[in-house]
């Protein structure tokens, strides 16, 4: 099993590149690109569909033969405003030029030529509370199951207040047994506020054959190949993460860990 915790391997250009091959799985890919104002980037999607998420900053984007204009608004994810995103189908090209310093997430999964390129957000994305008490967090759904934007991808943002838990009660989605549970690989791209803070993420199976607890820092990515995967934000540090999920079926069905099943 490859290491689940991925540190950024730079501060400029492509600082994360997670592929199915490097992660030891079959579906999810995730890149993170950090550019300065005036810099450009271009790629072909190949067999993958892609959602470009303007995590921070602004850029003009062309994709799938169309000029989509300038996307982006927030300069910090912790403004919590809805993200500007662009869906690009497989066998397409995309290119962008940054109009400010920018951080762009490239979320990838197998494409089936089933959906056309389209903008996603900020319209139609509303910050929504989930959970209560110390399990409260806030969600920006970008392309979850109710949004028929993609062939494979499921993408969402989560903001966890300082001192709270998230992706909790612990749950797993690692079997292809719909409608009880679906098999979905998942990446977590973490940010912390203040940026010198830390959070905790545990990835574990019921039998503890996988049982990893990680300190996550600003800019880290955690890969979840199977098992439960709760996160904790210590007092004093707010946590953001961008989730990318994909599997053989575009549906999110999970099973809670037995000790916390009564909390669902």
UniProtKB/TrEMBL annotation:
Q: Does the keyword Isomerase apply?
A: yes
The terms under GO molecular function for this entry are:
glucuronate isomerase activity
Q: Does the keyword Repeat apply?
A: no
Q: Where is the signal peptide?
A: none
What SUPFAM superfamilies does this protein map onto? RmlC-like cupins (SSF51182)
Task: Output the Gene3D superfamilies linked to this UniProt entry.
Answer: Jelly Rolls
Q: Name one Pfam family in it.
A: KduI
Query: Which GO biological process annotations does it have?
Result: inositol catabolic process
Q: Which of UniProt's keywords are assigned here?
A: Isomerase
Q: Which residues form a coiled coil?
A: none
Stored InterPro entries:
Deoxy-glucuronate_isom_IolB, KduI/IolB_isomerase, RmlC-like_jellyroll, RmlC_Cupin_sf
What's the superkingdom here? Bacteria
Cite the PANTHER family for this sequence.
5-DEOXY-GLUCURONATE ISOMERASE
Q: Which NCBIfam families match?
A: myo_inos_iolB (TIGR04378)
Q: What is this protein called?
A: 5-deoxy-glucuronate isomerase
Q: Which organism is it from?
A: Celeribacter marinus
What does UniProt list as this organism's lineage?
Bacteria, Pseudomonadati, Pseudomonadota, Alphaproteobacteria, Rhodobacterales
């Amino acid at each position: 099993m490859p290491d689940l915790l991925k540190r950024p391997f730079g501060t400029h250009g492509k600082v994360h590149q997670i592929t199915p091959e490097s992660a030891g799985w079959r579906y999810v890919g995730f890149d993170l690109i950090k550019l300065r104002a005036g810099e450009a980037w271009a790629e072909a999607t190949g067999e993958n569909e892609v959602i470009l998420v303007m995590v921070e900053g602004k850029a003009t984007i062309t994709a799938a033969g169309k000029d989509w204009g300038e996307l982006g608004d927030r300069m910090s994810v912790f403004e919590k405003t809805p993200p500007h995103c662009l869906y690009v189908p497989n066998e397409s090209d995309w290119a962008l030029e940054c109009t400010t310093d920018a951080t762009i997430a490239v979320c990838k999964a197998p494409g089936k030529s089933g959906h056309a390129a389209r903008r996603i957000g900020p319209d139609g994305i509303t910050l929504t509370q989930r959970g209560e008490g110390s399990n409260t967090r806030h969600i920006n759904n970008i392309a979850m199951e109710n949004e028929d934007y993609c062939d494979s991808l499921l993408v969402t943002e989560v903001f966890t207040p300082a001192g709270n838990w998230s992706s909790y009660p612990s749950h797993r989605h690692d079997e292809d047994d719909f409608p009880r549970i679906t098999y979905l690989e998942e990446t977590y791209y973490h940010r912390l506020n203040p940026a010198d803070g830390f959070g905790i993420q545990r990835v574990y199976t019921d039998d503890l054959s996988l049982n990893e607890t990680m300190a996550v820092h600003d800019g880290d990515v955690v890969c979840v190949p199977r098992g439960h995967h709760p996160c904790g934000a210590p007092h004093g540090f707010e946590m953001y993460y961008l989730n990318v999920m994909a599997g053989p079926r575009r549906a999110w069905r999970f099973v809670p860990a037995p000790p916390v099943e009564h909390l669902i």
